[in-house]
Write a structure and sequence with these properties.
Oligomer: single chain
Number of helices: 7
Number of domains: 2
Distance between the termini: 20 Å
């Protein structure tokens, strides 16, 4: 199941428009966007945008204090909120990647072990892992509160059909196609550049990461 779809008001163009029309709404949407889809949950670029906009608002606040203290405070609060969100989001992205590595790659399903390994409280680990499950990063998984563990459903290592490359037309192309058709596809362990999740695929195949939805070549 693809959980990367998000409401139109989380799209960049709409958020930019809101900053022009009513920037407090733009700030709220920019902060909420981080958890709008599993792709956004691993998007470190969003935290950079929040940082840049936050700094701009803080600078605007300094220039506004001479004209209106209230407006200056308003800008300053918005800027500080975005800067804090940027720092928090950057740390959260790293934690999400650690969850993928520990649970998805290494198969560590005990949330006590996960939280201890990452040095964070159990309740925090449980909440964030549940967020990943809700967005489809761990398909079909659920948390068993009695055993304090993640119950994973095994995913088939490869379910795509291998299509040999087409070399072209004519006699030479027909010969090349026949050779290519006799080649056996080579399976490889692909590592997603977005979240670090690993999966088995065919070498050279276009893969959509099960964990974060990023498209890459195996």
């Amino acid at each position: 199941m693809n959980n990367n779809n998000q409401a139109f008001y989380y799209n960049t163009w709409f958020i930019v428009m809101m900053f022009i029309v009513c920037w407090p709404v733009g700030i709220a949407l920019l902060i909420l966007r981080a958890n709008a889809s599993k792709a956004n949950m691993f998007d470190s670029g969003a935290s950079k945008i929040s940082m840049v906009v936050g700094v701009i608002l803080c600078l605007a606040a300094l220039g506004s204090f001479s004209d209106s203290v209230g407006l200056g405070i308003f800008f300053l609060i918005g800027g500080i909120a975005l800067i804090k969100n940027s720092l928090d989001s950057k740390k959260k992205v790293e934690r999400y990647k650690n969850y993928i590595d520990l649970i998805g790659n290494r198969g560590i399903v005990s949330l006590d072990t996960v939280s201890n390994t990452m040095g964070i409280p159990y309740d925090k680990a449980r909440k964030e892992v549940q967020q990943l499950i809700d967005k489809g990063s761990f398909r079909g998984a659920n948390i068993n509160d009695l055993t304090r563990s993640v119950e994973l459903i095994p995913v088939a290592p490869m379910n795509q059909e291998y299509i040999p490359p087409v070399a072209g037309n004519g006699m030479l192309g027909a010969f090349a196609n026949a050779v290519a058709g006799n080649q056996q596809p080579q399976s490889v362990t692909a590592t997603c550049p977005g979240c670090g999740g690993t999966m088995v695929s065919y070498k050279g195949a276009t893969v959509e990461c099960d964990y974060c939805g990023k498209i890459f070549t195996a």
